[in-house]
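Design request, tokens follow.
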């Protein structure tokens, strides 16, 4: 980032309220803080309390320092917390409740004579980019996943023009495609918005992707938690995407404890003694993220496949 000369740059960071989104942006925030940049990190009340609860039981709180401030706003699901585990429902609620709260926070900060140098928002929160633009604040959209996921979203109109999906995102054909030579193959019936089981959620998420695409056109930077060498084709297709990864668990800034900052739960280290019995690279790690959905048949097929590898494994 480049900021005009000033006493101390101040960055407002807004993650999507899920573990795989909060953690890398927290790591990026810590890195920026180490460069002398003041950070205000926004989180939902629910996730904020989980992080604070974890920090109270861990020495990780020492890594916040005076360069980072954690603030909280509601996500609108206080009366129906079970819906936080449903991606479509969570996104719908975030879109309804959070924009006004973030705008109020920025107004309050400006009223307190706080100069916000830049807003860094999760790429899926296009409304946050719009709010920053309203206040004429410089802005960066951050994608915590692979660049291929961003490219897929940016390629929607081409998918429609090529007759692969309807204008509402519904696949017209079940087909394996490549957005560009060298990029991973994708199945049209497994696009992120199609994979949701609820039709209404599919529609809402697809419309949200379209709106986000429009919103982030006004960003000063498009950042992605990836590495150029791993996704050369994707970055070649959209060179405006800047690789800044890897950021997250693998990024050790000072020691292992600091990498857990932003985690909703404490690390379970009970497996380390077991892992130490085996040579490096011999154990398979299996994980599906916060919102991983898998049917009974898929689960059984995966379990059988893992058994056939005859390799030791950790399944989380």
């Amino acid at each position: 980032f480049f900021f005009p000369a000033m006493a101390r740059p101040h960055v407002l960071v807004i993650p999507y309220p899920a573990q795989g989104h909060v953690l890398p942006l927290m790591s990026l925030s810590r890195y920026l803080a180490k460069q002398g940049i003041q950070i205000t990190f926004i989180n939902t009340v629910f996730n904020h309390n989980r992080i604070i609860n974890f920090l109270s039981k861990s020495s990780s709180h020492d890594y916040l320092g005076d360069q980072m401030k954690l603030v909280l706003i509601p996500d609108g699901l206080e009366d129906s917390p079970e819906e936080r585990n449903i991606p479509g429902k969570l996104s719908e609620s975030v879109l309804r409740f959070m924009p006004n709260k973030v705008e109020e926070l920025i107004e309050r900060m400006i009223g307190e004579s706080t100069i916000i140098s830049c807003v860094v928002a999760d790429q899926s929160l296009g409304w946050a980019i719009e709010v920053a633009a309203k206040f004429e604040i410089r802005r960066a959209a951050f994608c915590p996943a692979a660049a291929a996921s961003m490219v897929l979203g940016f390629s929607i109109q081409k998918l429609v023009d090529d007759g692969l999906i309807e204008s509402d995102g519904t696949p017209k054909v079940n087909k394996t495609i490549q957005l560009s030579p060298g990029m991973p193959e994708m199945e049209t019936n497994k696009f992120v918005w199609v994979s949701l089981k609820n039709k209404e959620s599919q529609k809402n998420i697809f419309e949200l992707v379209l709106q986000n695409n429009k919103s982030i056109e006004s960003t000063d930077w498009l950042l992605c938690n990836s590495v150029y060498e791993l996704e050369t084709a994707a970055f070649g297709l959209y060179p405006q995407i800047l690789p800044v990864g890897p950021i997250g668990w693998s990024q050790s800034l000072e020691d292992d404890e600091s990498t857990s900052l932003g985690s909703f739960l404490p690390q379970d280290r009970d497996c380390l003694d077991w892992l130490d019995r085996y040579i490096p690279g011999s154990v398979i790690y299996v994980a599906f993220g916060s919102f991983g959905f898998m049917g009974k048949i898929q689960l059984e097929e995966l379990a059988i496949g893992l058994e056939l590898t005859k390799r030791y494994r950790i399944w989380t």
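Comment from the thread starter after seeing the answer: thanks! The chain has two domains: 10-145+211-267, 269-316.
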